[in-house]
Write a structure and sequence with these properties.
Order of helices and strands of chain A: HHHEHHEEHHH
Strand content of chain A: 5-15%
Strand order of the largest sheet of chain A: 1-3-2
CATH class of chain A: Mainly Alpha
Shape of chain A: globular
Oligomer: homodimer
Helix content of chain A: 55-70%
Distance between the termini of chain A: 66 Å
CATH topology of chain A: Arc Repressor Mutant, subunit A
Largest interface: A-B, 68 and 68 residues
Structural class of chain A: mainly alpha
CATH superfamily of chain A: Winged helix-like DNA-binding domain superfamily/Winged helix DNA-binding domain
Number of strands of chain A: 3
Number of helices of chain A: 8
CATH architecture of chain A: Orthogonal Bundle
Radius of gyration of chain A: 19 Å
Largest sheet of chain A: 3 strands, antiparallel
Chain lengths: 168, 168
DNA sequence: TCTCAATTGACAGTATACTGCCAATATGGC
DNA sequence: GCCATATTGGCAGTATACTGTCAATTGAGA
């Protein structure tokens, strides 16, 4: 054979970076499909959970808690506020800061959407054997954790607690 | 403890969808960092490799070969053309189609950028033990392949060959 | 107290990633 | 040859995801 294009493309198809991108696209597609009755994206869902977990968090700390950058989060927060799922209240002791709170509608939405989110998470790994699902998840969690500092916005879970004075 | 916010966030942190997103963000950050001397993104790199592998491919088939949707690819192609790495030529037998070819500059770029791309791919998995790297890659490749149809733009590697009359 | 560095949220700009929709063009059934 | 259908590339619109910059505000040190 003179022409074997597949050999060249295999360098792309088997590259970790390409596989991570494809898997992320598939994961988002599955999430959106399972949650189509609720007008919510994966990022918006993560933000809502974080705000429910840390009521009164500000945008900068929120970005550290879910590891999305501040610029992106600005528009995410805007959309969540427009949909009535969260409220933004100015902080009394710091005029720069706006504190984030879940509304009743946001709270209800999280309760209602839970089964769909769970279905989505299950579906993503469904094609693998149960043991392999566990293996993949463990390795991926390790890799993400160990590569945390390589990310542009490293995860800083403990940051979220500081404003509540629970971590020093 | 009355307040245990971490327990709630763990539902996000251990969710496959969240881990896939974080890993993808990390992978892109590492790619961009290693390839900072070359003004090229991961998607643009994949597109260039695919065009080199299938000279004279059109945009629709290209989208099937690298599994990116047509709309996104339109602007990617535009940028690659603006940088002088590819050429768009109208197809003689079909006035709708524009065929894509690598330029000399594109060819040189691919040759020069290769070491940086390889470094990036290695760095993404570096924190894991060698055996775990292999395991993760194999499982991920399996999962992506088995979930191919769940993607909005399933990979159709064979489509790229049709215009060359090599697959029936 | 005053000044300077850091923080916060906002904005502009670029690049994916998707949904639709559209006009031009091809093609297959009749 | 004609017409319904499909394909192709382009466009508008939405949503991440990042880079930078900026003004307002805060806080820490001289």
């Amino acid at each position: 054979m003179q022409n074997r294009p597949d050999i060249t493309m295999d360098a792309v198809y088997t590259a970790p970076g390409y596989l991570f991108r494809r898997m992320q696209q598939i994961a988002v597609a599955i999430f959106i499909e399972e949650c189509r009755d609720f007008d919510l994206t994966p990022v918006q869902y993560a933000a809502l959970i974080a705000i429910r977990t840390h009521p009164g968090i500000d945008a900068t700390r929120l970005s550290a808690v879910i590891a999305f950058d501040r610029s992106t989060l600005g528009s995410v927060i805007e959309r969540l506020e427009a949909k009535g799922y969260i409220e933004r209240k100015p902080a009394p002791e710091d005029k720069r800061v706006k504190l984030l709170y879940l509304t009743k509608a946001g709270s209800s939405l999280l309760r209602d959407i839970m089964p769909a989110v769970d279905r989505a998470q299950v579906r993503m790994l469904q094609p693998l054997k149960p043991a392999d699902r566990k293996t993949l998840l463990v390795l991926l969690a390790q890799l993400v954790d160990l590569n945390n500092e390589a990310s542009r916005v490293p995860l800083r879970a403990e940051d979220a607690l500081e404003h509540l004075g629970k971590v020093g």
